[in-house]
């Protein structure tokens, strides 16, 4: 079973938020329900995070803040799509309700975006720069945050 980044966001959206380990468990449950094999769930999750379909959030109860316990929420580039059988997951899994500090989440994602923008510019990687430019517009709408300074630098780097 392969899942798209939007389907991963859809699974997370069904619950509101999931840890990485809970998302892996949900994917395993879906694969079992479909009598299918799960193909590289960690890679799919990593790709969804890299593409801003999922974004991480360190919540107060996350302990040491390790990746496995970091909360994932649908990100600015996601169009959450519930995969076949995904609507049944809350009946299968016991996941606690969690509140997300939207302001802290947005600030963390904006910081990550700014850091990645610097990396993209320094690496002189046109594809990375183009991808981040697209993300910048989605991020501002999704998070009501201003990343125009980083975007201006990306545009400048793109033009060089």
The CATH class of the largest domain:
Mainly Alpha
The arrangement of helices and strands along the chain is: HEHHEEHHHH
Q: Mean pLDDT, nearest integer?
A: 91
Helix share, percent = 55-70%
Strand order of the largest sheet: 1-3-2
* Radius of gyration over all CA atoms, rounded: 16 Å
Q: What general form does the structure show?
A: globular
For the record, the CATH architecture of the largest domain stands as Orthogonal Bundle
Low-confidence stretches: none
CATH fold name of the largest domain:
Arc Repressor Mutant, subunit A
- Indicate the structural class: mainly alpha
Tell me the number of helical segments per DSSP (H or I, 4 or more residues long). 7
Work out the count of structural domains: 2
Tell me the major beta sheet. Answer: 3 strands, antiparallel
What oligomerization state is this entry in?
single chain
The percentage of residues in β strands lies in 5-15%
How far apart lie the N and C ends?
A: 42 Å
Total E-strand runs: 3
Pfam families: DUF7109 (PF23421)
Architecture overview:
The protein is mostly helical and 160 residues long. The protein folds into 2 domains: 5-92, Arc Repressor Mutant, subunit A; 102-159, no CATH class. Helices cover 57% and strands 6% of the residues. It is built from 7 helices and 3 strands. The chain is globular, with a radius of gyration of 16 Å. InterPro entries: DUF7109.
Summarize the structure.
The chain has 160 residues and is mainly alpha-helical.
Short descriptors:
single chain, mainly alpha, Arc Repressor Mutant, subunit A, 2 domains, 3 strands, 6% strand
